[in-house]
């Protein structure tokens, strides 16, 4: 599953600069959509 990559996205979204937060949110969204 995607459980192994969620901490990476979480760290990016919570602590990254705005550009990285947006990119992390988009990546997490794509990962969730692909896992369904």
Question: Which keywords apply here?
Answer:
36 residues, mainly alpha, 78% helix, flat
Detail the topology: elements first, then pairings:
Layout: H1 6-15, H2 18-35
Helix pairs in contact: 1-2
Describe this structure in words.
- The chain has 36 residues and is an all-alpha fold.
- The chain has one domain.
- Helix content is 78%, strand content 0%.
- It contains two helices and no strands.
- It has helices at residues 6-15, 18-35.
- It is flat, with a radius of gyration of 10 Å.
- 3% of the residues are buried.
- The mean pLDDT is 93.
Tally of helical runs: 2
The rough form would be described as: flat
Distance between the termini: 10 Å
Write down the secondary-structure element order: HH
Rounded Rg:
10 Å
Overall pLDDT metric: 93
Q: Helicity, in percent?
A: over 70%
- Count of domains: 1
The SS-based structural class is mainly alpha
Main sheet characteristics? none
């Amino acid at each position: 599953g995607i459980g192994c990559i969620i901490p990476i996205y979480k760290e990016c979204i919570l602590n990254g600069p705005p550009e990285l937060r947006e990119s992390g949110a988009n990546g997490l969204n794509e990962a969730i959509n692909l896992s369904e």
